[in-house]
Structures are given as C-alpha cells and as structure tokens.
Design brief:
The complex is a heterodimer of chains A (374) and B (337). By secondary structure, chain A is of the alpha/beta class. Helices cover 42% and strands 17% of the residues of chain A. Chain A is built from 18 helices and 11 strands. In chain A, α7 packs across α12. Chain B has 337 residues and is of the alpha+beta class. Chain B is built from 9 helices and 14 strands. Chain B is globular. Chain B starts with 16 loop residues before the first helix and ends in a 13-residue tail after the last strand. The chains are: A alpha/beta (374), B alpha+beta (337). Chains A and B meet through α1, α2 and α18 of A and β13 and β14 of B.
Chain lengths: 374, 337
C-alpha cells in the first residue's frame, strides 16, 4: 500500500500556504479566526500547520470538544448512578473528566462499575446480555447524538437506559459570536457535523452575525483551503457561507440522520462547561423515549446525588479553560499549562480529553515548538 | 510524579518520563554503578576480550494470545532483542519465571510454552532454568511471565551513542504490534491482516553489525512508548536532537488504516520486532542493503537524522510543517468520534 492520500499532497499544501502568506502580507492588521472542532485542532497540530501560519493570522479553537463542554453536574449525575451500584457504559474520554465531587475513573477506583465502550451498538449488545439495567452515558455533539438516536429507534432492549448529555454546536457558536469582546472575524465550521446537518444550517448564523463561515474537512489540504477561502472573505468584508468540503457536505445534509436525530431529541437550554448557559444548546430525549430515559427512571437516585454534590464552585481559579473554549485565549496563555496542568494530572477539562485544545497542544508539542523558535 | 500521592500509578509502568523518574528516585537511589545508571536495554560486563550482556524483562499482555503472537513468544523475543540491541547477537541462554493464577488452564500454559520453544529455536537460544509460582484466584490476572537472558558481544553498542550527522534507520514497518494488541484487547474487530511483528532480531542485528561495523553508533528497539519514546530517550542520552521525515516512515497498510480509524499515532505504540539504528551517513547504504536482504528487514528505511536543535527533542517534518513528538505516560486509547 503506497497509494498517496490525495488530500495530503505536500506540493498543493505549500501552494495554499503561499496563498495565505500573500493574503496576510497584503493585510496590515491581524486576523483572528475560530474553528469549532477538536478534530480540526488535532489536524492543525498533527501536521504542524500552525508553525507555518503567517504571523498575523490567529486560528483559535472554540467550544469544539464534546468531552470538555460536558458540565460538571452532568458528570456528577453519572457518578451518582455509578455509586448507587448501577452498571455504567461510557466513552473512554469521559472517565477522567472531573465532576464537582469525583470523576467516573475515581468512582471506578472506589468500586463502581464503569465500563468503556466505543459505540452505542456496543451498549445495546451489553444491555441485551444483561439481566439488570445498564446506563449508557451518551455524550458528544450532533455527530454522536445521531448514533445514539439510531439505537433508540431500533427497538433497544428494555434494560438500556440513556443518560443523555448530547450538545448542539450551532447554539454555542451563537454564544461565542455574541460574546461582547470577541475578536473573531470568521468561522471554520466542522465538516463531519455538517455532513449530517448540511451547510444550509449556517445561513442564519452568517446573516445574524454578519461574519463569513466556511465548512471544511479534516485533511491538511481541506483546512488550508478552507482558511484561504475564509481569509479572502474576511479581507473583502463579505459575510458569506462557503462549502469547502463538497465531497461530503451538501446543503441539506443527511436527511435520514437528521430525521432520526429530531425524532429522538429536542433542543433545550443547557449548561456548557466553561461557557455557562447556552440557549438551545442541549439535546434532550423526547417524552416518547421516556422508557429508556435514565433521568426519569433513576430520578430519585439523581435527586439524592444532587444533594451530595457540593455547591457549584468557580473551579480552579487560575484555570483558563473557559476563555480557551470561547476562543479568547490559547492554551499557552494559561499559567498552569504544561506545569501544574498536564495530561496525567489535568486541572481543567481541556487537558483531559484528546479533543481538548490543551491536551492537543501538549501532546503535539505546540508550546515546546514555540519555545524552540525563541 | 512519584510524589503523586506516593502511590504507584499505571503511568509508572508506561515506559515514559514517569517510569524513568520512578527508576531514578527509587530503584537507583544510592546506586553508583555506572553500568546500572546507564539504564540501557541490558548491562554489559567485560569478559576477557569480549563482553557478557545481561538483561531481564517481565511480561504482561492482555489478551495473552493476539494476532501474530502470544505472551510466550513476546517473553523470549523481548529478552533476545534487548541483548541484540547491546550488540549481543548470540543469546547463550534464558531463564523463565512464570507466576500463574489459580484456575488457569494447563492447556493454555502448554501452548505458551510451545510458543516459547519455537521462538527460542528461531533465535538460536534455549531456556535453561525456570521457576513456577501460583497465586490465589483473583490475586493476579491470568499470568505474568518473566524472562532473563545472557549473551556475548564483541563490541557493545548503546542506545546513548547517537552522533551529530548520524542517519536514523528503522528495520521495518511501525506500530503493528501495538495496534494489533489494542484492536484485539478492545474487541474492535480490526484484526484481519493486522498482526503483531513480534520476532527475535538477533539475526537481523548481526547482519547490520557486519555491514556497518563501527559506523553503527546506536541501537534501540522501539517497544513500549513506540518510536517516539525510544527516540526521545536516545536523543536525551546523547544530548542531540532528531528530525524525522514523515513521508519516509514505513507503515503496513493494515496498521496505517487502523491508526487512521482509531486516531492513534503509530509512532506512539509498541513494536516487538523492530530496531532503530543510528549510523554514520557513509555506511547508510551498506546498512540498508544488509537489512533489506534479511527477511525481517525488507522494509527497512532511513527515516531521519540527528539534526541541530535542543538536546532531547524529536521533531517530525510533516511536509506541511513541523511538530515536536512528545512521550506519553499513558497507553493510547481509541478516540470518541
């Protein structure tokens, strides 16, 4: 197997990098752009793209890490069920995310039954083989919510209960764009999510916030091409919507997946870690799926758990996860980054998840690369 | 890291910085022996005109049987390869200790033993002494296998020997073992053609030493911690920086696919049948030719060089930019989405 991967063609990448250089050299001011996806940040770091961005181009990561934005009370709810002896299934990334009282990993170390799964179908298989209730802690954005919806629509076993904490990204983009001191001039939207939602979803965002949005994929050429389009729009002052990922993304998206998503979930206001209240930011199970809703079935246990949780704290004061998730700071702006806060001893959620900006920067040596240059 | 609550964590066994710190602060506390402090793959003792090399390795793996190998083959190859990485390609003899859980099937133990015997034949060595312990059910997860080995070398090669200007060579495709075991462990159903590379490397290393002679400056097998871990350690010990060319990294098609799918860096997972060499550029062609002529070295490639930069840093040129490779203290996990 030596077939080259077309979207990693280095010569074409160099040409796009030269285009970015030219555009920004002719533009006196700095430009700040925001992407909203851990996978975009991973690709930027993975291919070392930031090392070659023009000095006056800032590309920040916004609230694009599903694990990071899962709020502490949501973790506490799951911990409460785990501590009451229920069998919990969760994605591996969620294990070490701190709640207000405990992480799931710490609960497991104390004897709770918490198992890592990789897909909702695994949860179904485990529930089917189980004589007792099984709780699937369903986290993630609209991309993973569709997978959760699919299993709930496929006659799951009665023992399967879903503790849904799915989030709807476009709502958080609105919050970021409304943030009063935001310097963001353009948005790179996540191609995989748009594969499901369609790029048409962003038409109202572009109109309302008068800023360009470019939907981009995850190969290095996808990202560079998306950035060129976005920078061109910013410089020209055109609030336009562009699809730079047409091989996967259509205007209307995946209609079957969307139909499944909205049959199972409805939007509600929700708390996002680091951002606080996001209107319409939460995907909650509809009443038709009450028979599988862990929040209803285990309401008493969750109520008890809430009484045990300490009052909301402000979190570790010097941790800048909130500002990092709003795209206002980068990980290296945080005094804890790489010192008190490391992957093996994370202080903030952004260092826990492999989708978190801090973890991605740490593991790809972003900070150290900057040190290398100085 | 040892101060982290004063307890052992999984990070202390991951082969990264936390483990080295534990070794330094606990196992090497009060130790002044230079050979022990070198923290090599084995220890070299002068023996007449030649050297005796001594090494030991404990093996735990889940599952015990995985595509391409099992814990028995792993235990033999681990020790044979550690000896070979010091230049001791003649593995005189091994010892083997097995600690087994009450209730373990004897038939499985026999399969593991047969696999050890087969690996020994392949490596031209034998197990001459052993020990067996049984622990109560639940006190151990199946089986722990520990092997030690003794070999002889004419010249000792160390993992600290990289020199400025050296070319870096790897003997074949990267990441196959780690990805195969990960896939088997997590039931990801990717096994198919994805197989561990576990193999004894002493024959291959003998050919490399013959071809490159004293121009072969450094060797290390990129096991736990992968190529990144091995190169960070080599670069730190030699006080040099290393620059890798991503386009030159050999990957098997199944490993490339599995790594892409799972979001796992193939440079961060274990290999059990590969060697890294630091060689003077003048002997690079001879070394590559010798490796490629050996059945275990067909896909040997020059993957980078010792380059200017801060000591201990390992940089990767992706073609689109450069990033620094960072050692991990945890085992990589498949991603959420």
């Amino acid at each position: 197997m030596t077939a080259p991967i077309e979207f990693r063609d280095v010569a074409r990448g160099r040409a796009l990098q030269a285009q970015l250089d030219q555009l920004l050299a002719a533009h006196a001011r700095p430009i700040t752009l925001l992407h909203v996806c851990g996978s975009h940040e991973q690709a930027i770091a993975r291919y070392g793209l930031r090392a070659r961005f023009p000095a006056n181009l800032r590309v920040q990561m916004g609230p694009g890490c599903p694990v990071c934005v899962t709020d502490a009370p949501e973790i506490d709810a799951c911990v409460a069920l785990a501590e009451r002896g229920l069998r919990i299934l969760t994605y591996g990334d969620m294990l070490r995310v701190p709640g207000q009282r405990s992480s799931l990993a710490a609960a497991r170390a104390r004897g709770a039954r918490v198992e890592v799964i990789y897909s909702p179908t695994q949860a179904v298989e485990i529930a089917r083989a189980s004589a007792e209730p099984v709780v699937f802690f369903a986290t993630g954005f609209e991309t993973t919510a569709v997978a959760t919806a699919a299993v709930l629509l496929a006659e799951p076993p009665p023992q399967l209960y879903v503790l849904a904490a799915h989030k709807w990204v476009p709502a958080a983009m609105d919050v970021v764009a409304r943030s009063p001191d935001s310097e963001i001039e353009g948005y790179l939207a996540a191609g995989h999510a748009a594969t499901i939602t369609g790029y048409g979803l962003f038409e109202s965002f572009v109109r309302e916030h008068d800023k360009p949005v470019v939907v981009a994929g995850f190969e290095p050429l996808d990202i560079l091409a998306g950035l060129v389009l976005l920078v061109e729009r910013v410089i020209a002052g055109q609030a336009e919507l562009c699809n730079a990922f047409p091989r996967c993304v259509s205007r209307d998206g995946n209609r079957r997946a969307l139909a499944a998503l909205w049959r199972v979930f409805a939007l509600e206001d929700g708390e996002w870690r680091g951002i606080a209240r996001v209107p319409g930011g939460e995907l909650r199970l509809r009443p038709e799926f009450a028979a599988h809703d862990a929040r209803l079935r285990f309401a008493a246990e969750l109520q008890e758990g809430r009484r045990e949780a300490p009052a909301a704290s402000a979190g570790a004061a010097p941790c800048r996860c909130g500002s990092i998730m709003l795209g206002k700071l980068t990980p290296s702006d945080c005094a804890l980054f790489g010192r008190e806060c490391r992957p093996e001893a994370p202080v903030g959620a952004c260092m826990v998840s492999t989708e978190g900006a801090c973890r991605i920067w740490y593991e790809n040596g972003e900070r150290r690369l900057q040190e290398l240059r100085t | 890291m040892t101060a982290q609550g004063g307890r052992i964590t999984l990070a202390h066994g991951a082969g990264g910085p936390a483990m080295r710190e534990l070794i330094r602060s606990v196992f090497l506390d009060q130790v002044s022996d230079r050979e022990a402090l070198a923290l090599g793959d084995g220890a070299a003792l002068p023996f007449g005109e030649r050297w005796l090399v001594l090494t030991t390795d404990a093996h735990v793996v889940a599952p015990l049987f995985f595509p391409g190998g099992d814990i028995g083959r792993l235990a033999v190859c681990g020790v044979v390869n550690d000896l070979a990485m010091m230049g001791a390609c003649d593995a005189l003899a091994l010892t083997s200790s097995v600690i087994v859980e009450e209730g373990f099937e004897i038939e499985q133990l026999a399969r593991i033993q047969a696999s050890m015997r087969q690996a020994c034949e392949q490596a031209g060595t034998r197990v001459l002494s052993g020990d067996t312990k049984v622990m109560h059910r639940g006190e151990l997860d199946g089986l722990v296998l520990s092997t030690s080995g003794i070999g002889v070398a004419d010249r000792i090669v160390r993992d600290s020997g990289l020199q400025p200007g050296d070319a870096l060579v790897v003997s074949g495709t990267l990441g196959d073992h780690g990805l195969a075991v990960l896939s088997a462990r997590h039931g990801l159903g990717l096994e198919g053609e994805l197989r561990s590379d576990v193999a004894p490397l002493n024959g291959l290393v003998r050919a490399a030493l013959r071809a490159a002679g004293s121009a072969l400056h450094a060797m290390k097998d990129p096991t736990r911690g992968g190529v990144t871990g091995a190169l960070v350690e080599m670069a730190e010990k030699a006080g040099v920086a290393v620059l890798l060319d991503e386009a030159a990294l050999p990957l098997s098609a199944p490993a490339r696919a599995a790594a892409e799918l799972l979001g796992i860096d193939p440079l961060s997972v274990a290999n059990e049948g590969k060697a890294l060499f630091g060689v003077h550029p003048d002997a690079l062609a001879e070394l590559l030719a010798a490796l490629r002529a050996h059945p275990l070295g067909e896909r040997a490639a020059c993957i980078g060089r010792v380059a200017p930069g801060p000591a201990g840093s390992v940089l990767l040129d992706t073609g689109f930019g450069t990033r620094r490779l960072i050692e991990r203290d945890d085992a990589p996990l498949p991603r959420i989405c």
